[in-house]
């Protein structure tokens, strides 16, 4: 039985990104695995460990039995502790061990994708014991792997794939989070509109309208007389939304118009990944 059409775009995006990651890390020498990435607290090795670990969980493998050190400054929440277990348990693995495990995991996941027969709405176990649908799980993996591919590209000086299949999955996920960022987190004025004009490899123009009850909705229609407009490139949008940079470090890449207090509040609440 072939993969359900709803799941196919996420499988394609995951495959594209995981193959890019494998190609990037295969020739790395031992020292290069320790390079810092834009992902707070994680090296190249840590990101590859995270990718391997979560794909192993998708395969149903048991999580490692491991005690985290107490001095991991970047681990502050229960979600971060959960994610760190797969990472810290591999921190002393050698480069050949890392590439071998990655290759083996990719082979197993590709087999799983070929044999996937579950309905997209089937409930499965997600991180921290939460219940998610198969579709949510596939979508989250496509999102996660593309973002971490970009982390590795930044760390290794190998830019690219900003418009790959995973990029479009990431765009859609981040846009879904935008109404909450604007209406709730930034407390935009009621009965207002805020426009986001994003250019580059992935382009879009979106409006967040805040109604009289303070609820935000995402619209494709441009707004006349918006309370604020933010214009920025796609790479900066992603890095901000995924917490890889702070607004202060990319001010030269963002153009804002309208209420300065509002645009500042939006940018200060822009990061939506845990």
How would you describe the overall organization of this protein?
- The chain is of the alpha+beta class and 274 residues long.
- It has two domains: 8-160, Up-down Bundle (Four Helix Bundle (Hemerythrin (Met), subunit A)); 167-268, Nonspecific Lipid-transfer Protein, Chain A (2-Layer Sandwich).
- It is built from eight helices and seven strands.
- It has helices at residues 8-25, 44-58, 78-88, 95-115, 134-156, 165-185, 234-241, 260-268; strands spanning 123-125, 131-133, 192-199, 204-210, 216-219, 228-233, 254-258.
- The strands form two sheets. A five-stranded mixed sheet has the order 5-4-3-6-7. Strands 1-2 form a two-stranded antiparallel ribbon.
- Helix 1 (8-25) packs across helix 6, helix 2 crosses helix 3 and helix 5 crosses helix 6 (165-185).
- The protein is globular and about 55 Å long.
- The two termini are 35 Å apart.
